[in-house]
Amino acid sequence: MYLEDLFVSDGPPPRGPFESEWTVPLPRPAHVMRPIRPASVAIGAGIALAGQAVAIGLGLFGMTSERFNPPGTYIIIELPLQVGLMYGSLIVGANWVSRPHLDRGIGVGLLGGWLLGVAGFLAVSATVLGR
After folding, report:
1. Residue 24 CA: distances (Å) to CA of 20, 21, 27, 53
2. What does the pLDDT average to over 28-57?
C-alpha cells in the first residue's frame, strides 16, 4: 500500500466510528388539503341532532310532568340546555375544523347539525308555546 492510495479515492470518504448516518427528515408541506368526507359530516350532524332531540325531549317531559306545572317550565328547562348545546357545538366543532390532525367533516357536521337542531327547536317551541 502506497501513501498516494490514502488520499486518492473514487468513492465517498470512509465514515469514522463517531459519524452519524441519520438524516434530517423533510419538512411537512405548509398546507395539506384535508378533504371533508360526507360520512364524517353525517356523523357530526347526527351527534348534534341527537343532543338537540335529548334537550327538546327533556323540556317537553318537564313541561308535561305533574311535578313541574308553572307556565315557564319549558323555557326554564330548555334555556340552559340550549346554551350548553350551543357552546359545546361551537367550541368542539370549531376545534375539529381548525386542528390539522382531526377530521374536518365531523366539525362541519356538528356546526351544521346544531343549526338544523336550533331550527327544529324553534319549530317545536312555537308549537308548544303557541297553544
Report:
1. 11, 10, 9, 52
2. 86
**Does the pLDDT value for residue 78 go beyond 90?**
no
- In order, the DSSP letters of the chain are --THHHH--SSPPPPPTT-----PPPPPPS-------HHHHHHHHHHHHHHHHHHHHHHHHHHHSSS--STTHHHHHHHHHHHHHHHHHHHHHHHHHH-TTS-HHHHHHHHHHHHHHHHHHHHHHHHHHT-
Q: State the Cα–Cα distance between residues 40 and 129, nearest whole angstrom.
A: 35
Q: 76 CB contacts (<8 Å, ≥6 apart)?
A: 70
> pTM of the predicted model, to two decimals?
0.69
